[in-house]
Amino acid sequence: MFTNKRPLIMGVINVTPDSFSDGGLYLSTQQAIVHARNLIDEGVDILDIGGESTRPGSQQVSTDEELKRVIPVLEALIATNTPISVDTSKPEVMKYAIAAGAFMINDVNALRSPGALETVAQNNHVRICLMHMQGTPQGMQINPEYKNIVSEVKDFLQQRIHSAMKAGISKERLVIDPGFGFGKTLQHNLRLLDQLDQLTTLGVPVLAGLSRKSMLGTITGNSVDRRIHESIAAALLAVVKGAKIVRVHDVKASKDALAIYNAMKNFDVSQAI
Question: What does the alpha-carbon distance between residue 126 and residue 103 come to, in Å, rounded to a whole number?
């Protein structure tokens, strides 16, 4: 799937009361399912279901609560044949999600929780996204510091790729995410976006999640529910810099924008003469 020539669109489904953008909108199982089906109709490539907010300052939920939020939605959507990712750092949630048919685990903690590596390694059909985060969601935005943001993020992701492969997870199953907004200032995020192509040298697909994030609001002054234009711009810039997957809230708008990008990329000037 990740060898597809065009960039893929991952649609966000937050089954949470406190996510930064849409917390509480899709908290019930039925609301989340309806939202997911709308994203499918809009042309999403991958659905990403999360049952625990990882916004700055968020608090962890119990494993039981996260399972209660995520698994019924996942089970209801398997029949759509749309690849489904589950956004979790808990090995127990990973295990149940994989058993229920998850295509990918999207882990902001990059399989560093005890037992996470082993859980994914035991299931050789599932993909895994390894994300960079400095600190934890509870305090990650309190004065994050780097000497060289790009090289430090790249080194971390390279180490996590090595750890995953050492545990028996083949490189073909891996995706990496620089973690925009996870323990990074605006300048850190802009530098990462500008040099995102450096991460493509690690030899695995790069996922970029910039949609509606506070870095965009800092630039434009728009509230979180009014950041569609800057989110589309950021997604396009990430794709230009080599991202193979963009994680977005606004699927239709993102798909339309990327259609223009793909048309231009595939344009054969010789056929126009």
Answer: 5
Q: What does DSSP assign to residue 86?
A: E
* The predicted structure's pLDDT at residue 101: 97
The 8-class DSSP code of residue 125 comes to T
Alpha-carbon distance of 154 to 177, in angstroms, equals: 10
Given the structure tokens 């759509």, which residue do they identify? Answer: 80
- Given a cut of 80, whether residue 137 has pLDDT beyond it is no
Look at the chain and count its residues: 273
Rounded distance, CA 138 to CA 127, Å?
Answer: 27
Sign of CA dihedral 240, 245, 247, 248: positive
Q: What domains lie within the chain, and their CATH numbers?
A: 8-264 (3.20.20.20)
Q: How far is CA 232 from CA 37, 82, 149, 181, 257, in A?
A: 21, 23, 24, 17, 7
Distance CA 84, CA 10 (A): 9
* pLDDT tier at 59, thresholds 50, 70, 90: confident
Which pTM does this prediction carry? 0.92
Kindly provide the b/e burial profile for residues 23-33, where b requires at least 16 CB atoms within 10 angstroms of the residue's own CB.
Answer: bebbbebeebb
Q: Which residues are catalytic?
A: 213, 247
47 residue type, one letter:
L
Q: 158 is written with which tokens?
A: 């390279």
* C-alpha–C-alpha distance, residues 189 and 195, integer Å: 10
The angle at the Cα of 119, spanning 28 to 57, to the nearest 5 degrees, equals 50
Q: Would you say residue 23 has pLDDT above 50? A: no
Q: What angle do CA 183, 17, 30 make, to 5 degrees?
A: 130
First to last CA, the chain: 34
Sequence-ordered list of residues with C-beta below 8 angstroms from that of 41, at least 6 positions apart, any chain: none
